[in-house]
Amino acid sequence: MNPKLSFTKNFLDLLSSMRFAVSLLSVLGVASVIGTVLKQNEPYENYIVKFGQFWFALFEHLGLYDVYHSVWFLVILLFLVVSTSLCIYRNTPLMLKEWRTFKEHATEKSLRAFSHQATFKPAADYAVVKQNLLQFLDAKGFKYKIRAQEDGSELIAAKAGTHQRWGYIFTHVAMVVILFGGLLDGNLPFKVQEMLGYKRIETTDLPVSKVPAESRMSVSNPSFRGNMTLAEGATHNVAFLRVRDGYLVQELPFAIGLKDFRIEHYATGQPKSFESDLVIFDPALKEPITKTISVNHPLTYKGIAIYQSDFQDGGTGLKFNVWNLFTPNNQPQALAGNIFGEGALDEGDAQLRVEYNDFRKFNIINMSPDGKGKPHNVGPNVTYKLRDSRGQATEYVTYMQPLQIDGQFYFLSGMRETVQEDFRYLRIPADDNLSIDGFMGFRAMMLDASKYPEIAKRIAEKSLGVRGDPQMKKQFELSLVRLLTVFAKGGYSEVAKVIEKNVPEKEREASATTYIKMVNVAAYEAYNMGLALNKKPLLKNSPETERLLRDSLNAFSDMFFYGTPYYLQLNQFEHKEASGLQLTKSPGQKWVYLGSVILVLGIFAMMYIRERRIWLYLKPDAKEVHFAMASNRKNLDFEQEFNLYREQLAGIAS
Questions:
Q1: From CA 482, how far away is CA 553, in angstroms rounded?
Q2: What is the pLDDT of residue 64?
Q3: Residue 459 above 90 pLDDT?
Q4: Residue 502 to residues 58, 382, 488, Cα–Cα distance (Å)
Q5: Displacement of CA 196 from its chain's centroid (Å)
Q6: What are the beta bridge partners of residue 136?
Q7: pLDDT tens profile 13-28
Q8: CB 238 within 8 A of CB 218
Q9: How far apart are CA 634 and CA 118, in angstroms?
Q10: What pLDDT does 548 receive?
């Protein structure tokens, strides 16, 4: 035999075998579990943070971040389609033959070997017995065929429920149809074009107009799943397809405009429902189409389904008070910007670019100390980046309103240098008017070296008395001025450095306690001097005042680790929302639905239709009728049916 023909035959036998299909289905099942458990098509930064660099690279190489569009997954689908199609091609003729045949060539010897068989001795006339037997089969819904034997006997071969074999055909055909639908939605055209070098994924952040042609998909792309963000009043005719570590731009055969976006909230601030009024602009239309969509109520036009997926900021206008934390100036500067826009702080080499990234009007946070309380809305916050002249950026998130923590109110602003880090928060205590002005006045006094002698003098008079030893008072004041000077350079950490450098190790703890007490006393005077400057009521000695001063000193020390000299206090905003849309073109969806219907029919046929066959061997000379029965499933129902038929036939053939 030709070796090539032998190899081809063996390969086709393997390809159409059950074990090959089951193996592929097992791999497909494992892949589907991974695709369900592992969130797909997330930004790669999220996966790096979650898995680390090593596992991220391994999973990325295996294509686990987009399982259902990976090459190996589509290849498995293709092989399953081919394997199942070959199985149908090879076995369908045999099944149809089995469906049509009555198996009328069975011999008396083979029938007597059946486990379910019986023999009757009819006393009536042969023709009458035969007619009664045929009527019995008709009544039970059996189709039959009579075959004369050489010895004058006759074999009546009957069958019922042979449509069950169509169940096997339907289930296999359904698998092919469903898998074919999966291949249609697997974005195969892009895979082929990418392998041939005609298309590539864009990884840089470019304006839509500057995305090159090799990173754009035409309107003829048969299937895709993309996203579009529309601000109110905006119109776009492209969607973005997230692919691995980049994206593709999908051209649309029409333009989509957002007329209005509406959102309702619960009392806690959580979103309750949201919907968009869309306008479809198409040259083929006489008038634009206006349609309101909401979650689970999409708009489908030209085979493209437009879903309401989410919402985000659409370019909210922002106004800030900018405080320079390291100057004694107590007057903030004004700064305005828009989300997704940029601004600038300072000039020259010290200039910082402000990149406004996100604004959230509602923030639902559980602020209870034990975490068991109810989450509530803590108000708006803004996320932005400050980028220096070298291109290094630090990300900040600042809350507009003071947040209550452990019974006290604080202005919170978090910072982090990389997305892998958690935000580290600067907590600025609010004054009695829930304002930041009290702390900023205190900060200005603590940074103004010209105020130190006055602060030291007030403390010396209170501690040593007005008529105390002048020399001692002078020495005390000088010591306090030096301490305030050190504290103003770096807070508690700078004081600790001085203690470690100048104080013996055994005396450091006592010196630290003394210095902290002196700083607390100085803070009280500095805070009141700031209040007096702003013509506000002075602080009085109380536990609340002690906590306020302690929090203020902690915030002052933390300023040096804030990463920037500027604190952007959100003052006003003009909220502008955008609607997040998901656009899908899925020609395989109808095939999957069709395959599912066929699969249900096939499973129904296999589960609920039982194939049964009856043979009645009539021997007129011996006045004998031999009865045999078989089924593809020998269960309790079959046993009961056989016993019933045997009793009924015994009465007919007696």
A1: 17
A2: 87
A3: no
A4: 53, 44, 18
A5: 31
A6: none
A7: 777 777 888 888 888 8
A8: no
A9: 17
A10: 94
